[in-house]
Amino acid sequence: MRPTPREGGFLGLLLILGLLGAGFLALSDEVREHSTQAFDEQVLRSLRRPDDPGQPRGPRWLAEAARDVTALGSMSVLALMVVAVGGFLALVRRWRTLALVLGSTLGGVAVNTLIKGLVARPRPSVVPHLTQVLSESFPSGHAMLSAIVYLTLGALLSELVSKRWLKAYLVTVALVLTLLIGVTRVYLGVHYPTDVLGGWMAGLGWALLAGLVARVARRRSPGLREEARGDTEPP
C-alpha cells in the first residue's frame, strides 16, 4: 500500500531529522578529537590580514556591519523577538500555538547549553575576537538559536498566507538570516566554522522536531487546528 502525500511528507521529515542527528553526532565527535582544529584555524587566519591578525579582511565598514548582523542572533534580540510574537499570540488567544513557540525556543536554549557544557570546546584563540563572548564554543549558540527562532517564526507566519510563493519567501528570509548570522560569527573570530555548522545542524534539527510535534498535536487537537486556520479571534 503506497503512502499518502501527507504520510510521505512526514516520513521525509523524519529522514531529514535522522540525517541531521547523525551528522551532528559525527561532527561533535570530530570536534572532541580535535580532528577539525587545523582546518578551523586555517579558515580563521584566512579571514585576517597576514601582517595584523587583529584586522579582518575587507573594507572598514564590513566588521561593523558584521557586528550589527550578528546581534540579530544574540540572546537579547531573540528573546525580544519571541516576547513580541508571544504577546501577539496571547492577544489573539492562540494559547496552544504560543505554548509550541515557547516550548521550541526554551527547549532549544536548554539543549544548546547542555551540549556546550558536554563538549566544552574553548573559544578560538588563533585570532583576536572582534566582539564579546561569554560561553563555550561548540555549537554556536547564535547559529543554533537563530535557526530555531527564525525558522519557527517563519513557519508560523507562513501559515497565515495561502500562496506558495509567499510561504517560500518567509522561509527563505528565515534561512538567509540564519546563514548570515552564522557567517558573521566566523568573520568576527568568535567561532570556528565547525561550531557554526554544528549550530546550524542542531538548530534546523530542533526546528524540524518542533514542527513534527506541532503537526502531530494538530492532528489530535481541534483547538490547534482552528488556530492554524486562523479561526481564533481576539475578543
Helix and strand arrangement:
Layout: H1 5-32, H2 37-46, E1 48-49, E2 52-56, H3 60-70, H4 75-91, H5 95-119, H6 141-158, H7 164-187, H8 193-220, H9 222-228
Antiparallel strand pairs: 1-2
Report on this structure.
This is Phosphoesterase. The chain crosses the membrane at residues 69-91, 98-120, 140-161, 168-188, 200-217. It is a single chain. This protein has a domain at 65-228. The mean pLDDT is 88. The chain is 71% helix and 3% strand. It contains nine helices and two strands; from the N terminus they run ααββααααααα. By secondary structure, the protein is mostly helical. Strand 1 and strand 2 form a beta hairpin. The chain has helices at residues 5-32, 37-46, 60-70, 75-91, 95-119, 141-158, 164-187, 193-220, 222-228; strands at 48-49, 52-56.
| Tally of strands | 2
SSE class: mainly alpha
Q: Strands of the largest sheet, in order across it?
A: 1-2
Uncertain runs are none
Instruction: Tell me the major beta sheet.
Output: 2 strands, antiparallel
Residues in β-strands, percent: under 5%
List keywords for this structure.
235 residues; mainly alpha; Phosphoesterase; transmembrane; two-stranded antiparallel ribbon; 9 helices; globular
Short note summarizing the structure:
By secondary structure, the chain is mainly alpha-helical.
